[in-house]
Amino acid sequence: MAEVKWIKLSVNMFEDEKIRLIESLPEADTILILWIKLLAQAGKTNASGYIYLSEHIPYTDEMLATIFNRSIGTVRLALKTFEQFGMIEINDDHFISITNWEKHQNLDGLEKIREQNRIRKQREREKKKSLPVPDESHVTVTYGHAIEVEEEEEKEKEKYSTTTTENVVVYFEKSLCRLSLNQTEKLYAWLDDFNGQAEIIHEAINIADNRNKRTYGFVEFLLKEWFNNKLESLDRVKAYEQEKFNKQKPVRSGTYKKTIRQEIVPDYMDQEHVPVANPSEDAAKKQSIMDKLNQFRK
């Protein structure tokens, strides 16, 4: 990446209508400082006004809060303000770019830096190729190694293309929640563990969304389980999850029977335990009661 030591700022910057509107906000000073920091960061990136950690990794709000040394709430307020005023653009992949970047830098100067950097790298490659070698076998090994290195670099580029790594974080944040810087790095590490198969990470995110467990912790729990079980493809992951689901399903035989609530009642309510009456005993009791009533009446 070409090094940039400065960017251009207009002396009439604070006469701009948008800047004046920002100055009327409660957090005006902090927001304006963040605007200057964004311009400086875009200059460091030197990619036609884009701001990113690498060509395949956009900055998250948490990352910007860390490198700008400001609270995440303030950073989000500033980004929202800049976007509403048309000062920045944030695309679907969360990459930030400065609108009308040519107003904030010397395009010819930065293009010259990029060209110088390209020429320097080309000369370095040519110098390596022209190094003397002691014998023919060494030449074969050297060029063979160079080809292997190039192939590895191409594989890395493919692994971190816009259809894989870039979308893992974007897809997670669209589907579940925002990621911290630490969680973002961990998610990329999991992508490496699964050999760049973003579809496996996406599957974990989909399951977390469907089960209403929208946290990074649950996604990582699934990824650990799959990795420990050596599930190296999406098909194996889906088969594993289906098998788990089948085991958890309750087994039902016949028709469904509603459970009838049973009350605990005393023994005397049970007809089987009601004693059978003796007619002679009943007659004797009745006579005894009548005798006592007659005595009271006298």
Notable traits:
Arc Repressor Mutant, subunit A; 12 helices; mainly alpha; elongated; 298 residues; 4-stranded antiparallel beta sheet; 4 strands
Structure report:
This protein has 298 residues and is mainly alpha-helical. Among the domains are: 13-104, Orthogonal Bundle (Arc Repressor Mutant, subunit A), CATH 1.10.10; 133-161; 165-246, Arc Repressor Mutant, subunit A. Helix content is 59%, strand content 4%. It has twelve helices and four strands; from the N terminus they run H-H-E-E-H-H-E-E-H-H-H-H-H-H-H-H. A four-stranded antiparallel beta sheet has the order 2-1-4-3. Helix 9 (198-210) packs across helix 10. The chain starts with 16 loop residues before the first helix and ends with a helix. The model is unreliable at 136-144, 156-166 and 268-274 (pLDDT under 50).
